């Protein structure tokens, strides 16, 4: 925009030369050629094109000397594209053209050349500053985006570490309860059974039976709590990664994108499904590549196990392993799709609203 303003000012300034020279056809043609020159060079910002236009301008100036009146516009473009040799030649031609002309015109032309030099330098410096500003702004924006991404990654990593630490702590508590409280209750129940066996006082029998029932109830509660803690402490991603790493029949890849709060039934089912599928691949396929994809969507969980094998698919589909997979999917009200194109693929979706064994929706 600033260069357009510079062009307008310089062309307007050059028109003041009509105060000293007559307005004739040569002057009007020179004015139009200058407009064409300025707009074409401004529109096509290429040094080679500017050089060609400059040569054409000098040649035309021989036939239309009035072009020298608009020499400031020409010099502005030559300095902009660092075409110093054509500019120097044009200045020499300008001196020959104005030799013997009215002296009042010389200051006007020289000051116009000075304005062209000042305008071009000022605008070039401004353009450099603007380019630097835009580059700094873009770098700052890119840096902020990278920092935001890193912050999100750190938050996700932090959440995962907290989740892993929570699972480890649950495992530790479950082991402590099982090894200490569980063993002590078991020992108490055994000692109580021995005491009942040697007891000869009838009045103590009801109390001993009530004590045995209480200890048994406590033992059952401890077992339930330990099992619940152990079930909740299973890290689905780590278990599946372990299955993939231990699978040596063919290279296996895992694409895992599931949240941390996966229901217990889904965890056990997906682990069992992955085990059965990998076992089937080992037994019935000639696969050289295996891909496991696990994703969580707003309304469902998804697991896909694909191989590129060419083995006996009829045996694979009728085996006990696939029947077990179908039963698990059916129990969770899910959908199983088997695809036999370019290998063998199991595509399973489980809705998030499933019914557990206690009859509650989770």
In short:
The protein is α+β, with helices and mostly antiparallel strands and 362 residues long. The protein is 68% helix and 9% strand.
Task: Provide the fold topology.
Layout: H1 2-14, H2 25-43, H3 47-63, H4 71-80, H5 84-98, H6 105-198, H7 205-232, H8 236-246, E1 252-257, H9 264-284, E2 290-296, E3 300-307, H10 313-318, H11 320-331, E4 335-339, E5 344-351
Parallel strand pairs: 1-2
Antiparallel strand pairs: 2-3, 3-5, 4-5
Description:
Helices cover 68% and strands 9% of the residues. Strands 1-2-3-5-4 form a 5-stranded mixed sheet. It is elongated and about 145 Å long. With 362 residues, it is α+β, with helices and mostly antiparallel strands.
Number of strands: 5
Biggest sheet strand order reads 1-2-3-5-4
Helix fraction, binned, reads 55-70%
Intertermini distance: 63 Å
Shape: elongated
Mean pLDDT, all residues: 76
Classification by helices and strands: alpha+beta
The Rg value, from CA coordinates, equals: 44 Å
The portion of residues forming beta strands comes to: 5-15%
User: Largest sheet, described in full?
Assistant: 5 strands, mixed
Low-confidence stretches: 355-362
Number of helices: 11
Which series of helices and strands comes N to C? HHHHHHHHEHEEHHEE
